[in-house]
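Sequence design from tokenized structure. All designs in this work follow the same two-part layout: the structure record, then the generated sequence. An example of the structure record is given first.
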């Protein structure tokens, strides 16, 4: 659920982009948003993914089956996922832009 809705009950046209970003990060990593199995020191998968991105270690987010075969495509998916989960809805892409990129 997008933070602006969860915290303040504000719905934006980019609510769907946030959900898509979370789903993309879950699929690419094999980790559920609420899971802390592999990311114990982080509060969520989104925070974990952002930290890996900032440190230049995005590949570490990939589940082993994806990392073995399609790294360039997977890294693009991580980038798109992170664009979609930005805290400020104005910074998120429209879903039409995401579809165009894909």
């Amino acid at each position: 659920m997008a933070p602006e809705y969860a915290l303040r009950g504000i719905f934006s046209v980019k609510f769907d982009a946030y959900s898509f970003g979370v789903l993309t990060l879950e699929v690419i990593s094999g980790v559920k948003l609420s899971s802390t199995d592999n990311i114990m020191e982080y509060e969520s998968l989104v925070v974990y993914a952002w930290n890996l991105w900032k440190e230049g270690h995005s590949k570490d987010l990939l589940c082993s089956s994806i990392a073995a075969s399609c790294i360039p495509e997977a890294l693009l998916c991580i980038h798109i996922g992170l664009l979609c989960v930005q805290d400020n809805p104005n910074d998120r892409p429209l879903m039409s832009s995401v579809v165009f990129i894909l």
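The radius of gyration is 13 Å. We note this feature because it recurs in several other targets discussed in the main text.
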